[in-house]
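Example 3.2
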Amino acid sequence: MATADVEVRRSKRRRRTVSAYRDGERIVVLIPASFSQADEAEWVETMVARIERSEKKAQLTDADLLERAEALSDRYLGGLASPGSVRWVGNQNTRWGSCTPVDRTIRLSERLQAMPGWVVDYVIVHELAHLIEPGHDASFWAWVDRYPQSERAKGYLLGWSAAAQITPPSEFEPADSD
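Structure, written as tokens:
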């Protein structure tokens, strides 16, 4: 495994606690200023391993995604949307996901891997709904809105897009029906 880029921050106010978090490509480890070099080395190794384990555990495989999609279809779409495959892709920078109804393939942007599971589930339900209704009309949105956290997930994705200063994909917002 490649060694992570690590930044250690010492704090005079911190007495005993050690914490760490991911900041982009870097792992930041926060330790008390009173720690020796040996304490620092031991805690950095421990905290980096903890974060890397957590990240590895959190990543769903393509098989996991397919299983998750099938369960979501059963739960919210009456089992009517049956995907052929669901996989992560790294080439979707302007979309959260895409669906090809002809071969029932669903592709999810790798950017979603860092987001809460309920947001990933929303995008999966959105793409599954395309297997029932190909467009973004009122019937389509009625299917999507069966997922109880739809509005919350749309808000999360819009907020994430604003924070990242990117234009959110328009297909995740229903057209006004005035």
